[in-house]
Amino acid sequence: MSTPSRRRLMKDFKRLQSDPPGGISGAPCSDNIMLWNAVIFGPGETPFEDGTFKLLLQFDETYPNKPPTVKFVSKMFHPNVYANGELCLDILQNRWSPTYDVAAILTSIQSLLHDPNPNSPANAEAANLYRENRKEYTRRVREVVETSWES
Amino acid sequence: MNRGITDPSDWPAEFSPLREIDSNLRCPICKELLRAAIMLQCFHNFCSECIRRHLDKESTCPACRVQTSTAQMRRNVALDEIANSFGDCRSLLLKTVTDSLSPPKHTKPAQLSRAESMDLDDLAPQTKRRRTSSRISSKSTTLSSPTSQDTVEMNGLVDSAAEDDNDKDDDFMVSSQGSSSIHKGKSVSRSTAGPTLRSRAGRSEPPITVLEKTPEPARSWTTTAPQPPSQPASPSHVATATAPTPPTKPTTLVACPVCSMGIPEAYTNTHLDRFCFRGLKDPAYTISFELIMKQAPVVIETYERQGTTTRDVVGSTASNTSSPQKPSSSSLGAGGGYSNGSVAGGSSDGSSPLQHRTMQLSISGSPVKQPYPELKRIPKLAYGVLNEKQLRKKLLELGLPCHGDKQLMQKRHAEYVTIYNANCDATRPQTITQLKKTLQIWEETYLRDLDTKLVQRRQLEQQQARQQAELAQAKSTSADPSSSTVDATSSAVSTPLSSEGASSTGGEAGSSSFVPNQANNTNVAVAVAKASAFAHVLKYADEYAELIADVRRRQQIDKEKRVSEDTTKAE
């Protein structure tokens, strides 16, 4: 059954395969193209370096007119990531544009790891540490980097 | 024709200009080749349907976020036509390009049979026709194989394909040259092989080459190639499923401009008027083409007698001229006259504007171009002020189904308005029947999506409930040590509560009676009560029973440990 959203997701997949941006990878579940697993490698020269963070992207038939729901499956310690793994990222909410594709979403999340926005904190503790005690922040992030290798 | 999942990355990296063309002809929203291209005031182009759907909810350009509205939308007809033509020839072009990179094979003519609806005027009939042009020969270096087994006919085919591509897209020429320079390894021999090949071909049949040298790079339908009289059957004019097949095949298939089904060329107008414009399905699709060809002259004759067209269609079939371009080009040369006739006829019998438009579009390649008429679009409705009955009436007016609740009817109406208005922007509009079919598919998808979301929400609720239950269980376990310490000390400090009593009551009576009696175990009891309520609601009773048993077991072990510790201490 081909619908515009599914066709678009197939295109996104093809694009991601043929021209993958560095440090991200993603693929739909074999039995459900609306559900994607993705991995973001922690960007270099950040505390997240070497982390392999798994995400789950859930699309529906309104894609690409509406953004998918994106969640970290791996444990995350980041000012803009909620305890349940959900993200506070403008392009996944009010700044969404239907021109974005999966590669764009994952790249944005990767750059969010690089540049957290402590002004709209989803994790108050992480935001505070990021602002006031960068050393402790880095230590906590390194913890989640190490746990990200386990599962 | 554009149903595969295509992407600019399909083009080999050596042909990067083609990649760029491909990606520039794509809608940034759906990433398909533009359909009914629309330009906003910020000069960004989108499919009409995509941008309409977006502007229903937002008022910014999806690409640059500049404030905009549906009033700012302008049809970009030229771009739309380019995108359409590119879509038509894409698969063939891609095949040609990829083949040119791989080592030469002798199955080359077969590739041409894949042509979908590409306009291969030059291809089949003129296997012996030659046009010389420097850029073409540069092209053929990458395309034709330098091996000596190549027959003259094959070269002819490949060359004319190259010609066709060149006419369609000059950028291609650049890229092909690029590739030939990139593939030095092969191309050193090839680029020299090209001209020699050509001259060899020329030598093999010099009179024809001289005879048919056409210096102007015009399309073949203005320059008709003389046909060998030994081939009276009309060769394929426009690519068919069997494009380069022997010219003895009597069927000349073209793609219907409305429904894009393959139909005999002479049958086009009949097909359009009888079926496509009326939104009917042509039963002839199921009939073999030979049969159509037998019937066509009769149908066309009656059709002619009705005087609804001035187009000379019978000429090309009945007399079965071997060059189908001639009559059609002559009629197209008088394109103004034809379309005037059609407009006049149309207004006299009161046909729909869509009909006029498509009639004109079917000759969109003619030298005389008609202005693109703006079709009447369906205005949007203020659904808030309509009640269910009025909405139903509106749906019925459009000939749409009116079942379902108000929300569904509203969605259906809005979707239809979007696809209908988008269709008005297309240079190759679909029929109303096709639109309604699309709407039906949309509705099925929409309802299925609603269902999936409902299921997901339920699962989420269950998951949350389960988490709460686990939380409660965690509470009860954390409450354990305290209660067991109390219990354990009870033996020493003679508290009224006997620990064994507590556990045994619980053990015997099960979860429901376990709750109320124990004053000291309030925490546990409340937690358990809450959790068991959840468990009941969620039908997780079995699972929960295990949990309780586990809690008790741990309680028991704890107590025994403490008791034994106490006794050892006492000793």
UniProtKB/TrEMBL annotation, chain A:
Its EC number is 2.3.2.23. CDD domains: UBCc_UBE2A_2B (cd23790). SUPFAM superfamilies: UBC-like. Gene3D superfamilies: Ubiquitin Conjugating Enzyme. The keyword NAD does not apply. Transmembrane segments: none annotated. InterPro entries: Ub_conjugating_enzyme, UBC, UBQ-conjugating_AS, UBQ-conjugating_enzyme/RWD. The keyword ATP-binding applies. This is E2 ubiquitin-conjugating enzyme.
UniProtKB/TrEMBL annotation, chain B:
Residues 134-148, 233-243, 319-332 have a biased composition (Low complexity). Transmembrane segments: none annotated. It catalyses: S-ubiquitinyl-[E2 ubiquitin-conjugating enzyme]-L-cysteine + [acceptor protein]-L-lysine = [E2 ubiquitin-conjugating enzyme]-L-cysteine + N(6)-ubiquitinyl-[acceptor protein]-L-lysine. It comes from the Eukaryota. Residues 174-194 have a biased composition (Polar residues). It comes from Dissophora globulifera. Pfam families: zf-C3HC4_2 (PF13923). Belongs to the RAD18 family. It is an enzyme of class 2 (transferase). GO terms for molecular function: single-stranded DNA binding; ubiquitin protein ligase activity; zinc ion binding. GO terms for cellular component: nucleus; Rad6-Rad18 complex. Residues 383-417 form the SAP domain. Pathway: Protein modification; protein ubiquitination. Residues 100-251, 308-355, 466-514 are annotated as: Disordered. This is Postreplication repair E3 ubiquitin-protein ligase RAD18. Its main location: nucleus. Its EC number is 2.3.2.27. InterPro entries: Rad18, Rad18_UBZ4, SAP_dom, Znf_RING, Znf_RING/FYVE/PHD, Znf_RING_CS.
